[in-house]
Specification:
213 residues; methyltransferase; 6 helices; S-adenosylmethionine-dependent methyltransferase activity; Rossmann fold; alpha/beta; seven-stranded mixed beta sheet
Length: 213
């Protein structure tokens, strides 16, 4: 399997530009950052927990919301998965399409809250999407996950815990996350993450949730 990853420089060495937009629920917020090449959340590759999950899981139709540069989309596609990655920032989509070459066709500009997949989903992959949005939107995100995933489908990815009110990233209390998810999902896997970027170190977990029947 090809690992389409692109090394990144150390985010701590990058100067922070002056930004006009502070509301991460708007596409302008993310467009500004991508246009300034300021993406300190970008790991520059595919996390180990996802690689391990793909190795032991049969391919299903997959959606990646808020995909950024989209390394995971290319990785899943190279492993034979039917994957679509979306981002509502045009600049993010352009960056992904340029970085991923032929795999860039998997990345589309769309709003997660209105996006309708062409085929029923088997998996939504969560990677710094929930924590990127203001906390007030968390119930909306969870309800949209539940609406998009049929019974027996999977929500899998990385969840950022902790108290960080000045995000993004916005950490979430674990008990709160479980209260939001439990009406729709059952937790079946929960592991420590060993290759986090510094901002997420010791604060994120790899989790797999199944949509309740």
């Amino acid at each position: 399997m090809t690992d389409p990853t692109i090394p990144k420089s150390n985010p701590s060495s990058v100067a922070i530009p002056s930004f006009k937009t502070r509301d991460s629920s708007t596409s302008d917020f993310w467009t500004e950052r991508f246009e300034h090449s300021f993406t300190p959340w970008d790991k520059g590759g595919v996390p180990l927990a996802l690689q391990n999950y793909i190795l032991r899981t049969a391919p299903v139709v997959t959606l990646i919301p808020g995909c950024g540069v989209g390394y995971e989309a290319a990785y899943l596609a190279s492993a034979g998965w039917d994957v679509t990655a979306i981002d509502f920032s045009e600049a993010a989509v352009r960056a992904a399409q340029m970085a991923l070459g032929s795999w860039g066709a998997r990345v589309k500009q769309a709003d997660f809250f209105t996006f309708v997949p062409d085929h029923p989903l088997g998996l939504i992959y969560e990677r710094a999407f929930l924590c990127a949005l203001p906390p007030a939107l968390r119930p909306n995100v969870v309800q949209r996950w539940a609406a998009l995933l049929p019974a027996g489908a999977t929500l899998a990815g990385f969840f950022f815990f902790g108290d960080s009110p000045k995000g993004p990233p916005f950490g979430i209390d674990r008990a709160l996350l479980e209260r939001l998810l439990h009406p729709y999902f059952e937790l079946i896997e929960d592991q420590a993450v060993m290759d986090s970027i510094p901002a997420f170190a010791d604060k994120e977990r790899w989790q797999v949730w199944h949509r309740r029947r």
